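Forwarding these from the shared drive since the link keeps breaking.
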Amino acid sequence: MPRYSLLYGLLLVAGLASGAFAAADDKPDMFALLKEEQIGDLRLLGLTEKEVKTKIPCKLKKGKEEFWAATGEFVQKWDYPDCGISLNMGSGRKGGAKKVLSITAKKPSPLKTKRGIGIGDPEQEVMKAYGPYQDKEMSQEGQFVAGSVYGGLIFSFEKGRVAQMFLGAAAE
């Protein structure tokens, strides 16, 4: 009997690892959105500070570098107010080379997501473009969470239109 239990357990693990068992609601991989999504030419994975400087033409205002215990990184806010862009830039060591941790876009940003959503677009367009990725538990009136608050795209609305877009982890 123990052999059958072991065999069943191994088959179950192998099936889960291979994706043989589909989720009950057949939702897309929520973290896949985080990996593939962009706001304009800005993305999270692999975008260095050197690349950021070539992609945003506005004047940069850097905040103070702070240690975030939750992530174990030194984080600095980079604001581009004339472009409506704010970035959280992180490094494993104080003063080290940084990478993009999160992206926030608001007015007057002309940037759009990969699915064509930008500041000022109607809430219905967000629903159409990102509906399959919606986290219904975390979304609320005035806010649409695509993916997860642990890594996703969050839209904030004012008067039924996109007022802000946030790409990254909003919770730990």
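-- next protein --
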Amino acid sequence: MRTPFIAGNWKMNRSIGESIQLAKLLKVKLADVSQVDIAVCPQFLALPEVAKVLAGSNIHVGAQNCHGNPSGAFTGEVAAEMVADAGATHVILGHSERRQIFGETNQGVRARLAGALRAGLHPIVCVGETLAEREAGATIDIVSDQVKGALEGFDAQALRHLTLAYEPVWAIGTGKTASPEQAQEVHASIRSLIASLYGQDFAHALRIQYGGSVKPGNVAELMACTDIDGALVGGAALDAESFSNIVHF
């Protein structure tokens, strides 16, 4: 039985002080949760302070990205080891905003994944199609290519802490959500692909989150789907009450 995993991606929002306050609220509101794994991913400058607030709690802390190299002349980047040193245990990789806005490729995601694994972080690797790709009937091909591109060269042991997140680009920050049927279809195809690459046992154990305008009002029906094991929450994660209601689905 896969334990549900719900993570909040705060994106480029909240000052350090505001992030601390949000973390304190969530620490109280989610203290009773034991059947769901929880993580929050604040902006880089707030990450160490949020990690201090949540130390010893049932809420993990993640970064929103990391670089693949441990150090070097990579202005503006943050190494996975630095992320871990700041108190993070998880990291989001390949988010559609990174792919769409900053031009990250499958190869780049794979390099960042290597850094995350080297630093002992638990990676959340995001995949998803654009609206044009969905309308062209290419969803499964695009998502499969992204999964294979990110995971190429890693064996099952290296990926034992992996989480995948299916986030249709057209549903992120738009208020649109893939229907449970649409989401389940893609999640099932991802699990089938993983089974072909790493075996049925690994595929059965792998957690696959759904992301894309997840809210308290739609999380239950999404979580009822066989192959949806959690959520990567954007906007609703910035409100303590909303995020708490999602976790308590």
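The chain has a mean pLDDT of 96. Residues 180-198 form the longest helix (19 residues).

- D.
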